[in-house]
Amino acid sequence: MKRVTVIAGLLGLGLTVWMLMQFGARSILSLIMTGGWGILAATLFHTVQVALSAQAWRTIAGNTLAPALSWRDYFLLRCVREGINNLLPVAQGGGRGLVQPPAGAARFRDQKRRRRDNLRSYARTA
User: Fold this and answer.
1) CB neighbours of residue 38 within 10 Å
2) Where exactly are the transmembrane stretches of this chain (predicted)?
């Protein structure tokens, strides 16, 4: 696991350096500055939201984990979850069921039924 993390980190760092060399740090920074204070405000707001979610996860888990995880660990786990949900459509299809089993499972089941019914009605009309 540690090797994969190091490799992924190096790939991300390499991609960042390549983008800075390709497009120039000034042009990237000017694009960010175009957003003004709104980008900073959105980043701070989202960081607070992730931090509060991390604390909620820590409270819910209690002392059930063998080596007790620190708040920092939960914060990093929340950041990983946010990243996965942004890259992959796992939360949109009921992936939140892992966090909220009944609600997520019911939503996923309903979406599956709707898709099936839509396919059946489409097949009848075709």
Assistant:
1) 9
2) 29-48
Cα–Cα distances (Å) from 64 to 23, 61, 69, 102, in that order, read 48, 6, 10, 21
Domain-by-domain residue ranges, the chain?
Answer: 1-34, 36-125
Contact (Cβ atoms closer than 8 angstroms) between residue 107 and residue 94: yes
SS (H, E, C) 27-74: HHHHHHHHCCHHHHHHHHHHHHHHHHHHHHHHHHHCCCCCCCCCHHHH
For the chain, what percent of residues have pLDDT higher than 90?
9
> For residues 43 and 101, what is the distance between their CA atoms, to the nearest angstrom?
29
| Predicted TM-score of the model (pTM) | 0.52
pLDDT in tens, 7-65: 888 898 898 889 888 988 888 888 888 888 888 899 899 999 999 998 988 888 877 76
